[in-house]
Write a structure and sequence with these properties.
3-stranded antiparallel sheet; 21% helix; single chain; 2 helices; alpha+beta; flat; two-stranded antiparallel ribbon; 128 residues
Length: 128
């Protein structure tokens, strides 16, 4: 591995480098080449595939400083259907896409707060 010039796992200039500018360019190129989605569902599927190309798994990007190692990761991804007013999200530990219909939420002052689970336990089929 090439020594890092900054955050990005030392892959600067290599194919699929993970630096923010390279990730931005990758997204732009994919969107330029991808077929135009015909429906909201197709747009959501395309958006997920595009975001998957720049997802950072834990440990891939790390920085060593004063005997401490810190890691970057993609903690969550969000998608918004502006036409149908639906907010979608998934987290690092739960890639299942979850949705919130914004039309069904009361945003007025004093209304109950809505909480979305971010943490998630992995269950196995044998768990009861």
């Amino acid at each position: 591995m090439v020594p890092p010039t900054g955050m990005g796992a030392g892959m600067l200039g290599l194919p699929a480098d993970i630096t923010p500018p390279s990730r931005f360019v990758r997204i732009a190129m994919i969107l330029e080449a991808a077929l135009e989605p015909a429906t909201s569902e197709e747009a959501l599927i395309l958006a997920q595939h595009v975001v998957n190309t720049v997802d950072i798994p834990l440990g891939f990007v790390r920085q060593h400083h004063k005997n401490k190692t810190t890691y970057e990761l993609t903690q969550y991804a969000t998608f918004m259907d502006l036409t149908n007013k639906v907010f979608y999200y998934r987290t690092y530990k739960n890639m299942t896409l979850r949705s919130v219909s914004l039309d069904k939420i009361n945003f007025e002052s004093g209304s109950p707060r809505f909480k979305m689970p971010i943490r998630w336990k992995l269950y196995h089929r044998s768990d009861k």
